[in-house]
């Protein structure tokens, strides 16, 4: 899994939540540039990303991921964004789930279950 989160505090919280439900193989980066660089070295099954970074926006990043990797990587957005137009752009670009900060552990588990369903569907084709 690749976690793209600019805030160290937020990334620690998210990693702790993921660890508590059994996810341990997490690479963390803090910018879109670093995420793209990481993707050139390994292809994760899932990217969890926040919306805003100093070097860009999560919408452009998910569009990049979906175009370059042809929908082979599941994407979950975690954001405090409330603008429905922006969130719809993320959904349209292919995000499996959008979690609103602050999120509950149950919501994270539900998003991961959706990802697992999507991965199973991709392998059945």
UniProtKB/TrEMBL annotation:
Gene3D superfamilies: 3.40.50.2300. SUPFAM superfamilies: CheY-like. Residues 1-116 form the Response regulatory domain. CDD domains: REC. This is Response regulatory domain-containing protein.
